[in-house]
Amino acid sequence: MAAPEFICAGMIVADVLVEGFEAIPRAGETARVSGVSLAAGGDASNEAIALAKLGNRVGLMGPIGDDAQGRMIAADCARRGIATEGLSVDPDRPTTTGVVLIERGGERSFLSPANGTIGALGPEHIDLGLIRPGLRALSIGSLFTAARFDLEAVTPLLRRAKEVGAITIADMVMDQRGYGLDDLASAWPHLDYVVPSALEAELFTGLTAPRAIAARFRELGVRNVVLKRGSAGAIAFVGETEVTCPAFDVPVADTTGAGDNFVGGLVHALVKGFPIDQALRFASAVAALSVQAVGAGAGLRDLAQVEEFLARTAEPATLP
Fold this sequence. Notes:
Helix content is 32%, strand content 23%. It has nine helices and 13 strands.
């Protein structure tokens, strides 16, 4: 198999998807739901799957446990053509397995264990030897997932990716680890794009205005900033250009992984050389398709589907 042109590193989990959730039953009662299934999930895994569906050669890097869930994730990667040499089997911890409670309108909430492979993610799970010439993009999914990963592994990983000429991109999760932007000072200058949600960006910067948020990240050394705003679309600050793109209005079955699919679509478009306005539109289309079936990105099939969707969908009006 040819070496991956894209590598996604970071959060890898197994998702137990509970579809049609309404309320927790009382003790001793049974609640009926529409369906329960198991699937690979986590930000890095979701982004890798999206990129593979779009026809790219992708590798996934991070830890899984020596258990049924870890073997399921590895098998799912192999089935999709995702390179698994970057998967590190941790014999001492179970694969982090979360429960995703999906309401009938598509919104979801999560139950996640305190102990598992995600919390243990560190430099020993990152193989810099896999960051080789020919790599076109490295996507970190996500910053603030695990302290040792962020503080010990991210900087050398990003630095190595830039040395081989790759685009570097990272999204974020809510800070649950007691450290902040300044603690990643050595990493930011090696990052081409940071792609937080608007809420995450506000939490970390203490700012609310998108331009001010972008300025703060640039002070830290990040070159470009893209803010995900859910149903309000996305806004990008690239060079001297500010671009907004509304979200597409589509029926929603499950919003799990929508942001990760957006990032996967964005990475694909950037590597293919799309101008930023068209890259945002492409990423928004990937996210819009991803939410139309249950599972993180299950509604996304392939590149042809995205191209057909864009061809028949009117250009969204620019947000003010």
